[in-house]
């Protein structure tokens, strides 16, 4: 019942170059409105740290990014996570009814060229799976939680700053996964920015129950 994955914190990602060129929230988040949007009540951009929303936020009233929002976005570094919360009035039926709705896509800033492991993602997942196979007989589905270990691939292509961010509910499994992340197989090609300069990139190794 143990699931594994390794990726950026959120599936939705944006590069610094794309972020600096953005004029509206839809330059960052693809626009897929389910209904016709009639008006915007609030559009906020809020920083997330250690899986928690912070007080670092800039609020607007339209999809066009205002000066404060642009300043905030331009100040952010790689591997920063943020959420765009949009509250809107939308048309919700052929009879002309309207209703309030919201969306809150979560975004991770990634380098223009991301760090790559020589063995590939599947090899990293398989390494963790094989070396924790004994836990499959111990863990209970009801007690297992979505565990997360953050780690950084630095400019030298080595793993650094390995830390448990969220426990799986099983301390022994957490500790074993920390050991495995510190000894992941293969070599790493460091990430680079738009100028080709090497930069650090943070990844999340998820394990345990499938979840956020």
Low-confidence stretches: none
The outline comes out as globular
Structural class, please?
A: alpha+beta
Biggest sheet character: 6 strands, mixed
Instruction: Please tell me how large the radius of gyration is.
Output: 20 Å
Summed up, the helix count is 4
Cα end-to-end separation: 16 Å
Q: What is the β-strand count?
A: 14
Beta-strand fraction estimate = 35-45%
Binned, the helix content reads: 10-25%
The H/E string reads EEHEEHEEEEHEEHEEEE
Write down the overall mean pLDDT: 93
Describe it for me?
This protein is of the alpha+beta class and 212 residues long. 18% of the residues lie in helices and 41% in strands. The protein is built from four helices and 14 strands. The protein has helices at 16-21, 67-75, 121-131, 171-182; strands at residues 3-7, 12-15, 36-49, 52-60, 81-91, 98-103, 106-110, 116-117, 146-153, 159-166, 188-189, 191-192, 198-199, 201-208. The strands form four sheets. Strands 2, 3, 4, 5, 6 and 7 form a six-stranded mixed sheet that branches. A four-stranded antiparallel sheet has the order 1-14-9-10, with helices on one face. A hairpin with a 5-residue loop joins strand 9 and strand 10. The chain is globular and about 55 Å long. The two termini are 16 Å apart. The mean pLDDT is 93.
């Amino acid at each position: 019942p143990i699931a594994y994955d390794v990726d950026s914190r959120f599936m939705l990602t944006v590069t610094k170059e794309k972020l600096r060129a953005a004029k509206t929230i839809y330059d960052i988040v693809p626009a897929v409105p389910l209904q016709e949007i009639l008006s915007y009540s609030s559009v906020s951009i809020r920083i997330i740290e250690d899986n928690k929303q912070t007080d670092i936020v800039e609020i607007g009233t339209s999809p066009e990014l205002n000066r404060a929002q642009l300043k905030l976005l331009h100040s952010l570094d790689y591997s920063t996570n943020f959420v765009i919360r949009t509250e809107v009035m939308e048309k919700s039926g052929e009879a002309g009814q309207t209703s309030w709705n919201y969306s809150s896509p979560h975004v991770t800033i990634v380098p223009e060229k991301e760090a790559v492991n020589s063995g590939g993602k599947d090899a990293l997942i398989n390494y963790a799976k094989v070396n924790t196979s004994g836990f499959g007989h111990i863990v209970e589905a009801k007690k297992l939680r979505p565990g997360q270990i953050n780690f950084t691939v630095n400019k030298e292509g080595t793993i650094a700053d390995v830390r448990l961010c969220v426990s799986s509910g099983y301390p022994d499994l957490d500790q074993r996964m920390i050991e495995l992340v510190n000894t992941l197989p293969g070599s790493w090609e460091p990430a680079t920015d738009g100028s080709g300069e090497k930069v650090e990139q943070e990844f999340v190794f998820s394990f345990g129950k499938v979840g956020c």
